[in-house]
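pasting for ref
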Amino acid sequence: MVLRRACLLAVLIGAALPARADAAGPSAATTAAFNRYVVATEARIDTEVNDDRRFLRLDVQDTATRQTWLGRLRAGQVVVERLQSRDNGQRIDVPDAMVHHWIGTAFIPGGTARAAVDLLRDYDHHAEVYAPAVQRSKVLSRAGNTLKVHLRFFMKRIVSVTLNTDHDAEFFVQSPLKAHSRIRSTRVQEVDDAGTREEREMPIGQDNGYLWRINSYWRFLERDGGVYIQCESISLTRDIPTGLGWIVGPFVTSVPRESLEFTMDTTRRALATSASQRNPALKSPKVGW
């Protein structure tokens, strides 16, 4: 009976999710609304990264919540929340699509802001650090702390999805103890028959809509004997077919959160390993980056 239900669920999900290369991409209205959502989000971020009292989401929580978060962070956990940006207090509706907006925070005892930034902007090695979610990674060009990068993502949730993506990444060093970054996707193309001789990129706008856009906003703050890292992720996918949201919705909406949790925990572990290998007596001086 359990196997039968599992098979039925797989069939229903397969029927509900787009499966043809002729599926429509984001409409002009969808794109415009998502861009509006990003503008509203980045306006808030601009204010927060220049305000020491609001730089971390941790610091705007009430006393009880902040203490709970600190306990979890010191225990090596990643604290994740769902967010929703508004425009002058009004909800931003994105037609025929879903916006997935999550934020995660982690703490690495003994870590430094410089080590965190160095890890994140070392895109040539992201395929090693973030495997299997990242299969390929390469810096296409670099001008100071501004980079153009290529990443191949792999996701598997009943179906396997491979995506070739390009991004503009900017890193802003505000002090030896504090920095932030913005990584915006400039191209997202689904790969059909990935890893085979028939591999090909689906034409933009004629894919299955598993991912149309993805932006990430990182913050790094050295404090309390370590470094806090925070990542805010906004992604855009096609909407769920009417009538099957109760089946497909929880499945699809879990992917953005799980991806953020994986990225944050992997980053935390990599930085913790680096911190443990350093001799505290030989800790690098706070110099320019």
